[in-house]
Amino acid sequence: MAPTGDYSRPVTVSALKSLDFALDRNSPVPLYYQLAQQLEAAIEQGKLAPGNLLGNEIDLSVRLGLSRPTVRQAIQSLVDKGLLVRRRGVGTQVVHSQVKRPLELSSLYDDLEEAGQGPTTEVLRNERVPATPDVAAALGLAEGSEVTVLERLRSTHGQPMAALCNYLPADLLELDTDRLRSTGLYRMMRTAGITLHSARQTVGARIATAKEAALLDEKKGAALLTMQRTAYDDTGRPVEYGTHIYRASRYAFDFQLLVRP
């Protein structure tokens, strides 16, 4: 499925012309890979914004003193990642940057906002239902207890990124649908005086169903990242259980590993 989005604003190659590329021809790292990494970094840092044009391969190869196949290979690697798209009659265009989210107890909305990604939210469901066995176990409730289920579609730059499903004890707080469209769930919880302390989280991956692919503007069978999380307040009470799916082409978990002493 072709990437979509609002590219009605004027596009320019001036952003690319202002970038400095440091290519080490003595490095064992292939030149195409060096160029691709630096272009990807420029996209992630906002130096190349959605809608910007890269110009043609010939101009870029002459400017950098690289062969055209090397430039083409670098660009193709970013096309494959979903960061660039080739448009007939337009050229190679920046689509979006991949969001790299720290693996910590934080709100996706807050992380995207801090990264300047301009998050938007569509609330698909906000109602009270009986807890299923797995939801009841996660929240420490009796099976069939009333819980609030919240389903949202989170987007950036006009393109869907994640489908979020959260369950909360029904008596925890009132979730106003209008507020949920303009802020994050954890921010609403903090405003209500709930102090989030810790969480248990499982990250995985699978392929998208036809329904999920349609919701996330992906092809059926596209790769998805999955996350299940149970969050606890400062008294140790489970206050939220979430099951989320993310587009692997647009999202990654970023974390640091330390050597055990």
Structural notes for this entry:
Helices cover 27% and strands 32% of the residues. The chain is built from 9 helices and 10 strands. It has helices at residues 14-17, 31-44, 57-64, 68-80, 108-114, 133-139, 177-180, 185-191, 210-216, and strands spanning 84-87, 91-94, 99-102, 119-130, 146-156, 159-169, 196-207, 223-233, 238-247, 251-254. Strands 4-5-6-9-8-7 form a 6-stranded antiparallel β-sheet. Strand 1 and strand 2 form a beta hairpin.
Task: Tag the structure with descriptive keywords.
single chain, 261 residues, Arc Repressor Mutant, subunit A, Chorismate lyase, 2 domains, six-stranded antiparallel sheet, 27% helix, elongated
Topology record:
Layout lengths: L13 H4 L13 H14 L12 H8 L3 H13 L3 E4 L3 E4 L4 E4 L5 H7 L4 E12 L2 H7 L6 E11 L2 E11 L7 H4 L4 H7 L4 E12 L2 H7 L6 E11 L4 E10 L3 E4 L7
Instruction: Tell me how many strands there are.
Output: 10
Please report the distance between the alpha carbons of the first and last residues: 48 Å
CATH class of the largest domain: Alpha Beta
Protein structure class: alpha+beta
Strand order of the largest sheet: 4-5-6-9-8-7
Number of spatially distinct domains: 2
The residue-averaged pLDDT reads: 80
Largest sheet: 6 strands, antiparallel
Give the percentage of residues in beta strands. Answer: 25-35%
Q: Rg from C-alpha positions?
A: 21 Å
Low-confidence stretches: 1-14, 101-105
CATH fold field value of the largest domain: Chorismate lyase
Global geometry: elongated
Query: What is the name of the CATH architecture of the largest domain?
Result: 3-Layer(aba) Sandwich
Order of helices and strands: HHHHEEEHEHEEHHEHEEE
| Fourth-level CATH superfamily of the largest domain | Chorismate lyase-like
The number of helical segments is: 9
The residue fraction in helices comes out at: 25-40%
